[in-house]
Write a structure and sequence with these properties.
By secondary structure, the protein is an alpha/beta fold. About 45% of the residues lie in helices and about 20% in strands. The two termini are about 40 Å apart.
Length: about 350
């Protein structure tokens, strides 16, 4: 009889233990897994084999992702497709990327050209200089569009994989404070987004941006509202800025509250990008490493609280894949993230 009582006691203690740790574990899991991640296509991916791409998509799938934003299709003077612009070098693996994404059942948003000198053109230059720069950007975009569309028509003629576009010029709250500069920005973005809409009316147009406290939450919300009203952009994604050390959770919340009040035009939406990284400062240089899981979990919860739209992270290939981060943080991160999305307490 004593043995029976001991067994019952052990069972009860175990039940009590698991009932105590379950809420803690559930609390560590974000309300729902992120569906979409950014991907930065550097030259190194030009050497990827079909097997490499298969593993790439399989790892994303294991983490619950089904959508990807390719941050750019050309960077400076390097294009990742057979670009017709004479200034461009070619590393044409975009076809392989799209073909493998299609086979894996992923949805893709394609980024336009990225100019690494973009930020140098924005600080207090004369209005005429800014006009000239933005007009050159428009002309360069128009010159490369047809060749990019040819790739999409070849690989994805039915439009099942490529869902839209991403304008790679990031909008911040420091360089566009004056009404005059905002007018120039809206003209620039309307020109590009109008062309995209005319050529591909069925595809979404995304752009992202961040705050650093230069604008008040109210002014920033009004600015983004006008951006959506005056252009064909369908989604604005706010980078949370926490990994980039531009924001803290406490400083970010007033901006999220004001954005959540914005009367978003029909057919358009606001969303948030959760930064999965920390900056590691190394003398004059810096790199990024996978952030603390608990901190990122708070960011994910904030995104779900204020935006009922696709949750996007930056970036799973860099900060969730095993072996991608110093100290092997990403391997532990990936394991913990997978536990959350595949365990019942994950709500």
């Amino acid at each position: 009889m004593r043995q029976v009582y001991n067994i019952i006691l052990i069972i009860c203690l175990n039940l009590l233990f698991f009932s105590l740790i379950q809420p803690v574990y559930a609390h560590e899991c974000q309300p729902r897994a992120a569906e979409r991640t950014f991907f930065q296509p550097w030259e190194k991916y030009n050497s990827y084999t079909p097997e490499d791409w298969h593993l790439f998509w399989d790892q994303l799938d294991q983490l619950g992702f089904s959508q990807i934003i390719v941050q750019w299709t050309s960077w400076d003077d390097v294009s990742f497709y057979q670009d017709t612009r004479v200034s461009q070098q070619h590393r044409p693996y975009l076809r392989a990327l799209l073909q493998s994404a299609k086979s894996a059942g992923f949805s893709v948003w394609l980024g336009l050209h990225y100019d690494p000198d973009f930020w140098k053109q924005l600080p207090p230059h004369a209005d005429e200089q800014l006009d000239n720069y933005l007009n050159r950007r428009i002309a360069f975009f128009n010159q490369g569009m047809e060749a990019l569309l040819d790739v999409i028509r070849e690989i994805d003629p039915s439009g099942e994989t490529v869902k839209g576009w991403y304008i790679s010029d990031e909008i911040d709250d420091l360089n566009w404070q004056s009404a005059a500069k905002q007018e120039k920005l809206f003209h620039y973005l309307q020109s590009i987004s109008s062309t995209l809409f005319t050529l591909t009316p069925d595809k979404e147009i995304l752009i992202s941006g961040f705050v650093s406290g230069a604008m008040s939450p109210e002014k920033w919300a009004a600015f983004i509202n006008q951006l959506l009203l005056q252009t064909h952009i369908t989604t604005f994604l706010l980078q949370d800025g926490i990994g980039a050390e531009k924001m803290t959770v406490a400083a970010l919340i007033p901006y999220l509250k004001e954005l959540s009040k914005v009367p978003v035009p029909a057919g358009k939406q606001l969303a948030m990008i959760v930064e999965l990284f920390d900056i590691a400062h190394e003398q004059e240089h810096f790199t990024t490493i996978s952030a603390n899981f608990i901190r990122v979990n708070k960011q994910l919860q904030l995104a779900r609280r204020y935006f009922d739209s696709t949750l996007t992270v930056f970036s799973a290939p860099d900060h969730l894949f095993p072996g991608k981060s110093s100290h092997d943080l990403s391997s532990r991160w990936m394991n913990r993230y997978q536990q959350c999305i595949h365990t019942k307490p994950f709500l």
